[in-house]
Amino acid sequence: MRRLLPLPALPALLTPLVLLLAACSGSSTASTSTAGAGGGDTDGKGSLTLNVGDQKGGSEAVLRAAGELDDLKYKIRWSTFTSGPPLLEAVNAKAVDIGGVGNTPPVFAAGAGSKIKVVSASHGTAKGDTILVPTDSSLRTPSQLKGKSIAVAQGSSAHYQLVASLKKVGLGFDDVKVKYLQPADALAAFTGGKVDAWAVWDPYTSQVLRAKQGRVLTDGDGVTNGLAFQVASPTALADKKKSAAIKDFLGRLRRAQDWVYKHPEAWAKVWAKDTGLPYDVALDAVKRTNGTRVTVAIDKGVIASEQQIADTFTQLKLIPRKVDFSEFVDTRFNGELPASTTAPRTYGKES
User: What is the pTM for the complete model shown?
Assistant: First the structure.
């Protein structure tokens, strides 16, 4: 049995991180559809209220940190969710007008026939999407994963990254022993020596590396698309006033992301406080993944890339029907945004 993380580090891994982004845990059904982190609405001028789905340390935190909530002409009611899938369930139910998720939850929502529209995309590095192995593991290359046990959250961005990474080295999904585990359980299995590897995303990657409990066998750079999305309700988009508010909201998010790139240390402090992450872990995740994002147009490249993910999961029989991803996008807010092929930003040599 490998040594567990020291007890002081466990809360930072288990409690706050289960509530984080990326988004991405694909099979979680738990949600907390409550008022936002501040305990209520974001006050603005006017009577219109935009209902925004969020995740811990997500849109509200970054908008507030960047000063983008100071001059709203409408109100925002924040609802906090544990992951992308329940957030998209709320969008489908018209309980939320818009919310942010990773690259895989919209594919599963589309497969379920949900009423959603992807309205904004951002492109970041995929260096935080990793397959981790314990520090003392004998595994040195992904091709050595054949016959090994790997923990991953089903339907997550890490799930697709695992499939794609195996394919890159000539292995099929049935060549490994997959254990579908949500992050808290996967962490326990990984540090307890009960799995040989863990496919996961930032900030879990940064946490494990900082704790010296594992190392990166391979990452998603050049393997996955590094996309994240804002997804809206078609009903909200059909409302002229709410559509205008969504356009304004997306502009604020774009400016806030620019602020994050220019002020990584300031954002890491806010992110750490909001989520309970140690500051050094938050800064690592910002520089490796979170701060690299560029808002891009939802163009043919985005649609084709997501279609590939959808087709992959259909072939694995994890999505019940063929999905035409183009039917689940709305390009009205593309404007003058750069193409999806625009390279993510980087901070130079990584820590």
Answer: 0.83
